[in-house]
Specification:
Two copies of one chain form a homodimer. By secondary structure, chain A is of the alpha/beta class. In chain A, strands 3-2-4-1-5 form a five-stranded parallel beta sheet, with helices on both faces. Chain A has a five-stranded mixed beta sheet with strand order 7-8-11-9-10, with helices on both faces. The first copy, chain A, starts with a strand and ends in a 7-residue tail after the last strand. The mean pLDDT of chain A is 95. Chains A and B meet through helix 1, helix 4, helix 5, strand 6 and strand 7 of A and helix 1, helix 4, helix 5, strand 6 and strand 7 of B. Strand 7 of chain A pairs antiparallel with strand 7 of chain B, so a sheet runs across the interface. Chains A, B: Keywords: Cobalamin biosynthesis, Methyltransferase, S-adenosyl-L-methionine, Transferase. Chains A, B: It is an enzyme of class 2 (transferase).
């Protein structure tokens, strides 16, 4: 039986991939994925059959991958970050019953919550919530409820998909909701293009985050009541949510 | 200036480490960590100076690592999973001001939420909360509030540190709280020894999870209202939280 691997490649740079993901991509004959992600890694895996589909063609992408596996290939369906966090693992497993000849294996990767946190310092050292602001597949009211619940229970929050061209004001909307519960000086951070060309990061207050321009490749971090901005000798700031150790 | 890397090595098996983590551990002269984690990887990095401290000696571990860096070594402080999720990154950055001669870099890894999810299927495909049941450093009432908030807002939940010898009934206590809000047949899962010898997993209802015996090396997943157990041709079940794609 041929295998369909759903592979999280981490934030994008080759070195962020797990050794296992690297081995599996080397061994597969076919790599399938969203165009942008396949382009990030194709030069490291020459001689593969590459199949790409644009954004919003997720179901088609999974079907392509299954068809290639049923045709006798080992196939890797590539996800950025982790395969199981807003990735393709769920849709693949929902469709798997239609392709009994392909065996599915999920290969985890480093998700943006972890890779972005490492750029900023340690904002997710304590309990945290991960929330996507994309309302393509989720009613906004549900997203809003989750923001409210996370703020009320003093979770640190990591926000995926904070903004896009069509949803330019969504991060500001989220900040306004959070500001109903959290002080303006709550320590926040944002990282753009994690582990890719043009990586930038900023540490700022929730009040300032309200005016921050995020894009599709930004991950946003909201601190909890204990989160601090710690200055370093070099003038850089670290965003740190203490776990509670006695210093 | 010498560097102190805080390195997440993933769940434990060598292949789960990122290529970057592997390179950094190869390049460092000194590896520092909790005894169990250092033992997991030391055979892959021969010829290193190894310094270990037992559990609950986290501050001492960080100080040891800084002292080695200030003495002129490149040092890797090893964390299981991700360095920034209940790892050592936060404590290191809180102490960094005392060791201005050492430059700190955080190297992320695959946390148990991702690696455990991949074993079960795709339980964290939608918004989720990560909660530790350890009340060593956190008042139980705060943990309880977070469980309530997560259940009320229909987050999937990933539970770290569900149990230990001294906290044998904590997972059951958490389940009882969740059952105030969630139906007994909510789909849940648990994975023991992720990516290590003796890895086992189970998919079960929240009602059954109440009686499940977790240990220190278990990660627990509570589905949201949409989470399903999908049977495969081979008789295995997958735990899947749909993101909402039209099938």
């Amino acid at each position: 039986m041929k295998k369909l691997y759903v592979v999280g490649i981490g934030p994008g740079e080759y070195e962020s991939m797990s050794i296992r993901a690297q081995r599996i991509l080397s061994e597969c004959q076919v790599l399938v994925g969203y165009t942008v992600y396949v382009e990030l890694i194709e030069r490291y895996f020459p001689g593969k059959r590459l199949l790409t589909t644009p954004m919003r063609r997720e179901k088609e992408r999974c079907q392509l991958a299954f068809q290639e596996a049923e045709a006798g290939n080992d196939v890797a369906l590539i996800c950025s970050g982790d395969a199981g966090v807003y990735g393709m693992a769920g849709l693949v497993l929902e469709l798997a019953g239609q392709y009994p000849q392909a065996e599915v294996e999920i290969v985890p990767g480093i998700t943006a919550a972890s890779s972005g946190a490492a750029v900023l310092g340690a904002p997710l050292m304590h309990d945290f919530a991960v929330i996507s602001l994309s309302d393509l597949l989720t009613p906004w009211v549900k997203i809003e409820n989750r923001l409210r619940a996370a703020a009320q229970a003093d979770f640190a929050v990591c926000i995926y998909n904070p903004s896009s061209k069509k949803r330019a004001d969504y991060l500001a909307r989220a900040c306004r909701i959070l500001l109903e519960y959290l002080p303006e000086d709550t320590v926040c951070g944002a990282v753009k293009n994690i582990g890719r060309e043009g990586e930038t990061s900023v540490i700022l207050s929730l009040g300032k985050l309200l005016e921050y321009e995020a894009d599709m490749f930004t991950t946003v971090f909201i601190g909890n009541s204990q989160t601090k901005a710690i200055p370093t000798a070099g003038g850089k700031l670290w965003m740190v949510t203490p776990r509670g150790y006695q210093l």
